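Reply to dn_fold:

You asked what the input looked like. This is it:
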Amino acid sequence: AGNRALLWRDPNRGGGSWKDILIAILGPGSIFGEEVVFSSVERTTIAVCTTESLLGMARAEHVYGLLTRFPQLTVNVAKYLHEQRDNALAITEDRAYLSVPERLLRQFERLAHEYGKAVKDGVLLDIRLTHADLASLIGSTRETISVQLAQLVQAGRIRLDGRSIVVLMPPAVT
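and this is what came back:
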């Protein structure tokens, strides 16, 4: 399943009482911590590697130097940040306008795009997430996710294969 890390909101930063919030699932080549490179904010996230991983670190002044010397890198970083912003807006819209089952299916679509492997009847999500992880990703509770997963299985939208989830393809219209 490749290298993976889960990006969590750091409960020790920012004061107040914080609930664990899963921000993102990181794979090979992912970038995190950019918020402290491009502004003077305090880091608010922590990454927890779930598999053996190799991490690299760069100081802000070194990143600025690279961006100055390599204009194409600057364009690529801008595109990446734009993509991250668009993803954050889409997730915010989902939480505002979609029901929990709809948000869960939308999250499965995102996971299938990033971590899916085609199987005979659908797409296997090649990533291990707990019900609590899924709940955190879509703004719900573990208990609600457990109920919704059972309902999605009963409706023929997903199949649970051990700890894996297969998003089922609807039958072809003839």
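The mean pLDDT is 86.
Hope that clears it up.
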